[in-house]
Give the backbone structure.
Amino acid sequence: MARNAEKAMTALARFRQAQLEEGKVKERRPFLASECNELPKAEKWRRQIIGEISKKVAQIQNAGLGEFRIRDLNDEINKLLREKGHWEFRIKELGGPDYARIGPKMLDHEGKEVPGNRGYKYFGAAKDLPGVRELFEKEPLPPPRKTRAELMKSIDAEYYGYRDEDDGILEPLEQEHEKKVIAEAVEKWKMEREARLARGEEEEEEEVNIYAVNDDESDEEGGREKEGEEGQQKFIAHVPVPSQQEIEEALVRRKKMELLQKYASETLMAQSEEAKTLLGL
C-alpha cells in the first residue's frame, strides 16, 4: 500500500487540490512582523513558522542527507527560530500573550549551542558534522592543585632527612669516610711538621687538651661522670650539675614569686622583704 505522501503526489490528488484552491488567493506571510497589525493573523503566522520548524527538525535527523543539505537545513531552522522570536515580540506589542516567557521551549531545547557562540544552534545530524563535533568536545580539566594542608600531610621526619641512618647503610659508609678523612688529615699534619723540622723552625708548643680527664681528679671540682652504654666513651661535666631536689626547690621558689607578683600588693611585698631582712633570710 502506498504511503500518504506518495498518494498526495499523484496527478489526481494535485488536480483535486487545484480545484479546491481555484478562486482563492493564497495569503503570504509578511516579510517583516511589524507589517502585521492584527493579533489573530500574527498568531497564525507564528503557528505556521512553528510547523515549518518542526518539519525541518524532523528532516535534519536523517544523517544520510549529506553534509551540504544538513548545513542548509540547520541554517534554515535557525533563521525560522529568529523569525519566530520577532513574531512573538510583535504579538506582545499587539496585546497578546508573552510567548517568549510562557511559551513551550521544546524546539529551542532540540538544538545545542556552541560555547561562546550564543544564538546559533545545531540540530540533529548537524551536531556530528566535521568541524562541529570538535566544538562540543570539552577540554580535559587540569589536575586539581593540592593545597598547602594536603602537601603538609605527606611531610614527616623522613622528608627532612632524620631517618637516613635507619636503613643501616649510610652510617657505616659515613664512619668509613670519616676514618679516611681523619687519616688524611693526620698524614698531612705529619708531613707539614717534618717539613718545619727540616727547615729548622721551632716546633710550636702543643695545645693543652682542656677536655682531658686525669684519674686522680676529685669530685670536689663539681664534675659528675656521665656513663653511657657499655663500650662507649665516658664524659665528665666541668660545671656543677644541680640535683633533682635542687631543681624542684628552684621551681617552687619561682612559682611562689610569680604568685606573689600576681596577687600580692606592693605594700605587702615591701613588708615581706623587710621581714626577711630583719630575720636575715
Observations:
- The chain has a mean pLDDT of 77.
- The radius of gyration is 51 Å.
- The longest helix spans residues 170-198.
